[in-house]
Amino acid sequence: MIQLFKMAFRDLGRNRRRSILSSLALGIGLALLLLMAAVIAGEWRGSLDVSIKLQTGHIQVRAKSYIEDKTSLTWEDLIENPAEVATQIASIQEVKVATPRLFASGIFTSGDESTGVRIIGIDPSSSANAPFRDGMVSGEFINADDREGILIGKPLAEKINLKTGDKVNLLVNTSNGDVDEQIFIVRGIFSTNTPGYDLNTVFMPLGKAQTITRTENHASVIFILLKDIEQTSAVAAALPATQYQIKTWDQMNELVVQTEEFANAYMIVLYLIVLGITATVIVNTLVMSVFERTREIGILSAIGMKGGRIMSMFFAESSLLAVGGIAMGLVLGAILVVYATNIGFYIGDFGITGMMFGDRIYAYLTLNDTITLTITAFIVTLLAALYPAMLAARMDPVEALHGGK
Fold it and tell me: What pLDDT is stored for residue 286 in this prediction?
């Protein structure tokens, strides 16, 4: 076996440029596949992480009749005494934070500009608001007793040309179907680097949101974040499902989960296409080697070398090309993935209904993807040697000694 690899190394060295370029083609293909796998995983992971932190949490507790799409404010569709319910849920060991939130729709106007917004009443002291508190770009965060202050996203402020301290008019739907109107002061401007979310979201203290929507002592949901996402099912099972509607992060982010599954299936096809193109280069290299060494193969056959051993010699050459290409691919792929992980790719205000994206996509390469792609590239390269190896093994010794003529 060692002798076979020595011969294979010598044979590849006869045309070093061609051998190096063949390995490089495999390396570039593997590097691109690693980058693609990392970007897809990072996009899914980033979208899910953003959605959980900003919008869904790991779990939401709702009234049985609450329908999210309708943003219902009727008392029957809301949770009564939400602070007490949140305190009880927060006592569960696996729960990091549980806080009530009230959702309402409204129209935000300033001067001649107006836009529809989603109003969220929050408990300003809750640690669940960390993404908004940490994302403050100007002004200050609202407090629970503020009856005139609101927070708006940076894209909304830029769209309507607002700054901290400006007064704006807000029309809000109420529980009885009316519309209430009030002048508010922009206390602060935040940015979560999620343009689609920041553009349409307005925060105010929960108490004020309850007052203006006439939903006193009620909330739309109890927003729950866990210490470990793996505990979601266990915590959900411990909540009073007979009294409330319990929604987990995968149920609330169903489109994200389905898209990730579809993307994985699609990427498998794409991986095979890229590796197939790379394998064509390897096949071409080895076929050329067969024709260049026709007489040598005839001599080896004439002195008794079996067809199986001749095939093994070409598989050994393919293995060496694969090892060299994979080594180059891992190095080049690592450089690309490190860049994409730390710098990312700017996509701006890109959004899909049912999914949330930040303004950048960051790569996330898993060990499983790395091992799978590496093994697949090696196997495909070995399979690429099958035709040239069979071509060489089936040569008639006499014809081969005459140069195949």
Answer: 77
Using CA atoms, how far apart are residues 312 and 289, in angstroms rounded to an integer? 15
* Token pair 């005494």: residue: 81
Determine the pLDDT at residue 25. 87
Which residue type occupies 386?
Answer: L
Longest dimension (CA), the chain: 98
| CA atoms 312, 285, 393, 291: torsion sign | negative
What pLDDT score does 101 carry?
96
**pTM of the entire predicted model:** 0.76
- Contact predicate 102/213, CB 8 Å: yes
Q: Report the amino acid identity of residue 234.
A: A
CA neighbor of 339 nearest in space, from 362, 319, 358:
362
- Profile the chain (405 residues) by mean pLDDT over runs of 10 residues: 67 75 88 90 84 92 86 89 94 95 92 88 95 94 92 92 92 88 94 89 95 93 94 92 90 79 75 81 77 66 67 79 91 93 75 61 88 89 80 62 54
Determine contact, residues 143/75, Cβ cutoff 8 Å: no
Place of tokens 């890109």: 350
Question: Chain-centre distance of CA 255, in angstroms?
Answer: 13
Interatomic CA distance for residues 27 and 23, integer angstroms:
6
**CA–CA dist 321, 29 (Å, integer):** 13
